[in-house]
Design a protein that fits this description.
four-stranded antiparallel sheet, 29% helix, alpha+beta, Alpha-Beta Plaits, 3 helices
Protein backbone atom coordinates (compact mmCIF):
# COMPACT_ATOMS: atom_id res chain seq x y z
CA UNK A 1 0.00 0.00 0.00
CA UNK A 2 1.18 3.51 -0.73
CA UNK A 3 1.05 6.06 2.06
CA UNK A 4 1.44 9.82 2.16
CA UNK A 5 2.96 11.25 5.30
CA UNK A 6 1.96 14.92 5.52
CA UNK A 7 4.27 17.05 7.66
CA UNK A 8 2.73 19.94 9.56
CA UNK A 9 4.81 22.58 11.28
CA UNK A 10 5.00 26.16 12.46
CA UNK A 11 6.56 27.77 9.41
CA UNK A 12 7.92 30.69 11.44
CA UNK A 13 10.16 28.20 13.22
CA UNK A 14 11.27 26.18 10.20
CA UNK A 15 12.01 29.12 7.92
CA UNK A 16 13.91 30.96 10.67
CA UNK A 17 16.59 28.26 10.95
CA UNK A 18 20.13 29.29 10.16
CA UNK A 19 21.94 27.45 7.38
CA UNK A 20 23.77 25.40 10.02
CA UNK A 21 20.53 24.49 11.84
CA UNK A 22 18.91 23.55 8.53
CA UNK A 23 21.85 21.30 7.58
CA UNK A 24 21.82 19.61 11.00
CA UNK A 25 18.09 18.84 10.79
CA UNK A 26 18.36 17.61 7.19
CA UNK A 27 21.29 15.36 8.15
CA UNK A 28 19.28 13.74 10.95
CA UNK A 29 16.29 13.29 8.64
CA UNK A 30 18.50 11.64 6.01
CA UNK A 31 19.71 9.14 8.62
CA UNK A 32 16.09 8.17 9.31
CA UNK A 33 15.22 8.02 5.59
CA UNK A 34 18.25 6.05 4.42
CA UNK A 35 17.09 2.55 5.47
CA UNK A 36 13.80 3.01 3.60
CA UNK A 37 15.60 4.43 0.56
CA UNK A 38 17.90 1.39 0.47
CA UNK A 39 14.88 -0.93 0.81
CA UNK A 40 13.15 0.84 -2.10
CA UNK A 41 10.20 1.80 0.09
CA UNK A 42 10.63 5.58 0.18
CA UNK A 43 9.10 7.43 -2.74
CA UNK A 44 9.24 11.12 -3.58
CA UNK A 45 9.71 13.54 -0.69
CA UNK A 46 8.72 17.19 -1.04
CA UNK A 47 9.29 20.32 0.98
CA UNK A 48 6.86 23.11 0.33
CA UNK A 49 7.84 26.75 0.20
CA UNK A 50 6.26 29.05 2.84
CA UNK A 51 2.58 29.94 2.59
CA UNK A 52 3.61 33.44 1.50
CA UNK A 53 4.60 31.79 -1.82
CA UNK A 54 1.26 29.98 -2.16
CA UNK A 55 -1.60 30.71 -4.53
CA UNK A 56 -5.09 29.38 -3.87
CA UNK A 57 -7.75 28.79 -6.52
CA UNK A 58 -11.13 28.85 -4.79
CA UNK A 59 -14.48 28.05 -6.31
CA UNK A 60 -16.46 31.22 -6.91
CA UNK A 61 -20.11 31.80 -7.76
CA UNK A 62 -19.41 32.40 -11.43
CA UNK A 63 -15.75 31.56 -11.90
CA UNK A 64 -12.85 30.42 -9.73
CA UNK A 65 -11.10 33.08 -7.65
CA UNK A 66 -7.32 33.25 -7.49
CA UNK A 67 -5.95 34.39 -4.13
CA UNK A 68 -2.49 35.01 -2.76
CA UNK A 69 -1.52 32.64 0.02
CA UNK A 70 -3.47 29.86 1.70
CA UNK A 71 -7.23 29.98 2.17
CA UNK A 72 -7.13 29.96 5.98
CA UNK A 73 -4.46 31.10 8.38
CA UNK A 74 -3.47 28.51 10.94
CA UNK A 75 -0.59 28.09 13.34
CA UNK A 76 0.47 24.82 11.75
CA UNK A 77 0.70 24.50 7.98
CA UNK A 78 1.50 21.71 5.57
CA UNK A 79 5.21 22.17 4.84
CA UNK A 80 6.11 18.89 3.21
CA UNK A 81 5.32 15.28 2.52
CA UNK A 82 6.81 11.82 2.15
CA UNK A 83 5.50 8.95 0.07
CA UNK A 84 6.16 5.44 1.30
CA UNK A 85 5.40 1.86 0.29
CA UNK A 86 4.58 -0.28 3.31
CA UNK A 87 2.92 -3.58 4.13
CA UNK A 88 1.30 -2.23 7.31
CA UNK A 89 0.24 1.05 8.85
CA UNK A 90 2.43 0.18 11.86
CA UNK A 91 5.51 0.40 9.62
CA UNK A 92 4.54 3.93 8.52
CA UNK A 93 3.74 5.01 12.08
CA UNK A 94 7.16 3.78 13.23
CA UNK A 95 8.90 5.77 10.45
CA UNK A 96 6.84 8.87 11.28
CA UNK A 97 7.79 8.60 14.96
CA UNK A 98 11.48 8.50 14.00
CA UNK A 99 11.02 11.58 11.80
CA UNK A 100 9.29 13.36 14.66
CA UNK A 101 12.12 12.56 17.07
CA UNK A 102 14.80 14.19 14.90
CA UNK A 103 12.82 17.09 13.38
CA UNK A 104 12.45 19.99 15.83
CA UNK A 105 10.35 21.95 13.33
CA UNK A 106 7.53 19.48 12.80
CA UNK A 107 4.62 19.31 15.17
CA UNK A 108 2.60 16.52 13.57
CA UNK A 109 2.60 13.94 10.81
CA UNK A 110 -0.67 12.91 9.17
CA UNK A 111 -0.65 9.52 7.48
CA UNK A 112 -3.01 8.66 4.63
CA UNK A 113 -3.10 5.73 2.23
CA UNK A 114 -3.37 6.85 -1.38
CA UNK A 115 -3.70 5.66 -4.96
CA UNK A 116 -1.77 6.90 -7.96
CA UNK A 117 -3.86 7.83 -10.97
CA UNK A 118 -2.47 8.36 -14.46
CA UNK A 119 -4.64 10.92 -16.29
CA UNK A 120 -3.39 9.69 -19.65
CA UNK A 121 -4.53 6.17 -18.79
CA UNK A 122 -8.10 6.73 -17.56
CA UNK A 123 -9.33 4.08 -15.19
CA UNK A 124 -5.85 2.82 -14.27
CA UNK A 125 -5.10 2.87 -10.57
CA UNK A 126 -1.88 1.79 -8.89
CA UNK A 127 -1.59 0.76 -5.28
CA UNK A 128 2.19 0.43 -5.30
CA UNK A 129 5.18 2.16 -6.87
Amino acid sequence: MLYAILCYAHEETVFAWSKEEEEAVMGKLMEVQEPLMKAGKLGPVGRLMPTTAATTVRKGKEEPLVLDGPFAETKEVLLGFYTMEADTLDEVVAFSKKLSEVNPGSSSYEIRPFYVFHPNELGKRETST
